[in-house]
Design goal:
Blueprint: H1 6-12, E1 18-22, H2 29-42, E2 51-55, H3 58-71, E3 79-82, H4 83-93, E4 99-100, H5 103-115, H6 123-138, H7 149-166, E5 168-169, H8 171-184, H9 186-195, E6 198-201, H10 209-218, E7 221-226, H11 241-244, H12 246-249, E8 253-257, E9 260-261, H13 266-276, E10 288-289, E11 296-300, H14 305-321, E12 329-333, H15 339-349, E13 353-355, H16 366-379, H17 384-390, H18 400-407, H19 415-420, H20 427-443, H21 448-456, H22 461-472, H23 476-490, H24 496-513, E14 522-526, E15 535-540, H25 557-568, E16 571-578, E17 582-583, E18 586-587, H26 592-595, H27 599-602, E19 604-606, E20 615-618, E21 622-630, E22 633-638, E23 643-647, H28 648-653, E24 657-659
Parallel strand pairs: 1-7, 1-8, 2-3, 2-6, 4-5, 6-7, 9-10, 11-16, 11-19, 12-14, 12-15, 13-14, 15-16
Antiparallel strand pairs: 17-18, 20-21, 20-24, 21-22, 22-23
Helix pairs in contact: 1-2, 2-3, 4-8, 5-6, 5-7, 8-9, 8-10, 13-25, 14-15, 16-17, 16-20
């Protein structure tokens, strides 16, 4: 164990019954756990059969087991696995058969119930419901959900009924049934207390209440390693309180602090400490960068998400030219929707990328599909599928029988002509259908951005969204964010055809991601998705109000700050932070997480969005050059020769101006 630092060594040799090792990012917690097992087996002569090691993923368990076999080649190897794997074994020993519900069945049950209440059901909404069902089971906290409790209760009831009727369990059932078995049967509890003498838990901050209860029930030696500053899974029932209240939960307890961050360069460690120190629900601790070299940290304030993506693409190309791998770089964001601008830029620049959430495609959202259908129908008025998608969005009193008549017609003509000849269509509807036919055709004569605005206003799709939000109790602001992101995605295209071609290209690229194997690629992920990972270069994007922290999570500000901290501490050498002036066409202030740190003094601040000499395009006055920016006043010289002054905030908030980006 000569390779351990003094803090790691202290943790490995701790003698208390209950040990909490508080391990900051990059502290070598896996090394500590492996050496603790080695210490128990070789120095304290504990038999391997009495030791269990709990991790939070099967992959982590396999990795740890493999590494331990390299260190210790004799005797019985301890159990390495997840809580769920352990509970499965406990139940299997005391039950004839355990059958787990398949994820596709879980999805189908929730989809079926939601479809009765919500017109369009996304995979993300289903995931959200399943997470809430899990949280309801494993947490005593009040459940906060984004839909009516009536709809959620129907989902919960259908899900539980499906399982009970078929004798199926989910992972939460495994936990609850195993713990209930131990509580109710003292003979079985005694057996496991004699068998499991030593429990080591990795990522202890991710434990839920049921898992914590199990550890207390066994009531033997526990060695828990975690970091309350990295507790970011409250939506799964995890809470930093399991670490904060460790001494209350476990008798004979001892805390050991690991102090060295072996991952990140010194100034990155200092910035991360600057961020997290504002949280109250944490241990005050010393974190020291082992490597005292200074990394590169930049805080950039680009004009909008498009410029942000282009800046990052150019940096990645430069890094590649210097001999670095694409996989050295990660782009981190708060929500999957933000990946859209980077996917666009990387496809355009032919930069290979990998989405950690492989299933996500922004253009698959029902609002995007509706808007795409309107646009596509304008250039292909024979398209019955697109007609079916949009004809009653908003509601136009077109009956199901009339729609059926169009869909089953063998005629190859304009869908609106077919509609007007369907039996049962009233004469008073004819004029409306003629107008709609004309309006749809008119879209193809407009610029792309004007066509989208026409759909939203003149064809009243915005009104449809408001009605949809009210009817199905969906957050209207979230739906309008999708609209704004769609409009942003269209900004760089002039015609409907080129935009639709781009969307097809995105779909094709995302479908091919899974078949590309281990090709060297830039990583695109939410900050949740990269916990436990590290990269030479980390770019954290859209660090602005309402995004980081997210507007729907303001009541849990400390967890939002922990999430940002996790993002920062993935960086080894270089950390790039971005706070665009404008997101989805709206002026944004930098995140409070930037404001309450010393980042401004520690970072190289560049790219303030717009500067003197930049070429711009104004919606009404055309192309011009920025002459001067003083506070909120911007002076522009237009190609026609006119000089004009504007409020910069007004231009950005109303999406009246865009920067012309010259690609290298």
């Amino acid at each position: 164990m000569s390779n351990l630092d003094k803090y790691q060594n202290e943790a490995v040799r701790a003698s208390s019954k209950s040990v909490l090792v508080i391990a900051p990012p990059g502290a070598g917690k896996t090394t500590v756990i492996l050496n603790r097992i080695k210490y128990l087996l070789e120095e304290r002569k504990v038999k391997g059969i009495h030791v269990i090691v709990i991790t939070f993923t099967k992959a982590a368990a396999e990795n740890m087991k493999s590494r331990f076999k390299e260190m210790h080649k004799e005797g019985v190897i301890p159990f390495f696995g997840t809580f769920h794997g352990l509970f499965y074994k406990i139940l299997l020993r005391n039950k004839d058969e355990i059958r787990l519900i398949e994820s596709k069945d879980s999805y189908n049950i929730i989809r079926k119930v939601l479809s009765s209440y919500i017109e369009e059901v996304s995979d993300e909404k289903i995931k959200e419901v399943l997470n809430n069902i899990s949280r309801k089971k494993v947490s005593s906290k009040n459940l906060e959900i984004s839909m009516t409790y009536d709809i959620f209760d129907k989902c919960y009831e259908a899900y539980e009924t499906f399982k009970n009727e078929r004798g199926l369990l989910d992972f939460d059932d495994l936990q609850i049934k195993a713990v209930t078995l131990l509580k109710e049967n003292h003979h079985i509890l005694g057996y496991y207390r004699n068998l499991i003498k030593y429990i080591l838990v990795d990522e202890f901050q991710d434990c839920d209440e049921v898992q914590l209860e199990f550890l207390r029930l066994i009531n033997n030696e526990v060695f828990c390693v975690g970091d309350e500053d990295q507790s970011i899974y409250s939506f799964r029932g995890a809470t930093p309180k399991c670490m904060i209240n460790f001494e209350e939960n476990f008798e004979g307890s001892e805390k050991v602090y690991l102090k060295y961050n072996y991952r990140s360069l010194k100034n990155i460690v200092e910035v991360s400490k600057d961020v997290i120190k504002h949280n109250k629900e944490r241990y005050q601790k010393e974190i020291i960068a082992f490597n005292e070299n200074q990394g590169k940290i930049e805080l950039k304030k680009p004009f909008n998400e498009s410029e942000e993506a282009n800046i990052i693409a150019l940096k990645i190309e430069e890094s590649k030219r210097l001999g670095n791998k694409y996989s050295d770089t990660a782009i981190l964001y708060r929500t999957n929707m933000e990946s859209r601008s980077f996917i666009d830029a990387f496809i355009r620049k032919k930069i290979p990328f990998k989405l950690l959430d492989k299933e996500y495609n922004f253009f698959n959202h029902f609002i995007c599909r509706d808007l795409i259908a309107y646009l596509r129908l304008s250039i292909d008025p024979f398209n019955k599928e697109d007609f079916n998608k949009i004809i009653n969005k908003p509601f136009r009193y077109v009956s199901k029988s009339a729609i059926y008549g169009v869909m089953n017609s063998k005629k190859k003509e304009n869908v609106f002509d077919i509609l007007m000849n369907v039996e049962g269509v009233h004469p008073f509807q004819m004029r409306k259908f003629e107008e709609l036919k004309s309006d749809i055709a008119y879209l193809n004569k407009l610029s792309l951005n004007s066509a989208i605005d026409f759909i939203l206003s003149d064809l009243e799709y915005s009104q449809y969204i408001r009605e949809y939000s009210s009817k199905f109790k969906q957050n209207q602001e979230d739906l309008l964010d999708i609209v704004e992101e769609f409009k942003s995605s269209a900004m760089e295209f002039k015609s409907i055809i080129t935009f639709l071609s781009h969307i097809e290209s995105v779909e094709e690229n995302l479908e091919n991601l899974n078949s590309k194997g281990n090709i060297d690629s830039v990583i695109l992920s939410t900050m949740h998705g990269v916990k436990g990972m590290q990269f030479n270069d980390v770019h954290i994007v859209n660090i602005v109000d309402e995004t980081i922290p997210h507007k729907n999570s303001m009541e849990n500000l400390e967890e939002e700050r922990r999430l940002f901290y996790v993002g920062i501490t993935r960086a080894i050498n270089n950390l790039y932070l971005y706070a665009p002036k404008s997101v989805r066409g709206k002026f944004k202030d930098p995140s409070i997480f930037l404001n309450n740190t010393n980042l401004d003094s520690q970072c190289n601040i560049t790219d303030y969005g717009l500067k003197e000499g930049d070429a711009i395009r104004h919606n009404y006055f055309g192309i011009g050059e920025i002459l001067k920016i003083e506070k909120d006043t911007i002076s522009i010289k237009f190609v026609q020769g006119e000089n004009k002054k504007f409020s910069l905030r007004t231009l950005i908030e109303n999406n009246l101006i865009e920067k012309i980006i010259c690609e290298v």
